[in-house]
């Protein structure tokens, strides 16, 4: 999709630092990288927190090199997607100068977030036990792949967790191989859990003055997020398998081919099924003993799919989507990502926003002085939470490596180098 095809900015949230976010005044020392931790800290930064991202000099966050795709400047869009509203400092934590600077940053912070291999921060003298006595109000959030005990030595990569955590076993066609989701979903879920844990710990601190350690793992987050599949095992001993796009407990709840592209049907109750049968011109299906109730439809899924599929092939997905939605039946085409953003825009939901990028002191993006160049922006995916009184803000574009080192440590005596 070219830039001209991107839906316009939604205008959701404040830009340029207008107003005060809900978390204004909160300082977060962010030692995390890749996805789960950075996603959590970006959500908090959008809501007003001052997030200082600590990166390794020279290389920084690994995702800076995860490309393609890249923006027009050659920067990894992976990195850009989860690091806005942050300031970057470059610190070498393997030497004492870098660790001293890290301690100075932590001393002025409310929250520390890290996702190193368990034990790494302890070896650096920056573990929770090292910091708790000096900073009793600190909320210390550790994100790991498999916990700090038996799984400490296992690398925490999303694909690995999807495999060993059971998600791949229920994803894919019944007669095909297990597949991963199309995005690092476990990292995202873990980032959300980390955010929730941090906010709960801050609430506790507000009430008691006491900080605490927050621990979340990719595996624990995935097992919780498996919800009905996990509870089916826990409560009934059912080990689920792969059903493609079908649902183990609801029918019809899957995708169907149409005259042009796939259509998703999500029929969650008997009333919706009656309406579906009427729209498709076969009302007798709703009276058929095989399909009258949801358990019956699940038991006779194959027969039902064949009957519905024959009718749905007579028209395109957009036709069926509009007709079925008008009748109260949840349905929609399988969109590509550009179509998904366009759909959200038509509905007035958050989509794409532009974050102003600072320009040189002469006022132009390209160094010219005639003012003819447009002000540069970083196009970002909007924050998903709408707050009526303190909306998300888009103050800063994703930072360059070590871009704010001097600024952050300006008040520390004798600290003049750009990196330490």
Automatic annotation (TrEMBL):
Membrane-spanning parts: none
Keywords: Transferase
Domain of life: Bacteria
Pfam families on file: CoA_transf_3 (PF02515)
Phosphoprotein in keyword set: no
GO molecular-function terms, A-Z: CoA-transferase activity
Xref: Gene3D superfamilies: Crotonobetainyl-coa:carnitine coa-transferase, domain 1, formyl-coa transferase, domain 3
Name of the protein described by the UniProt record: CoA transferase
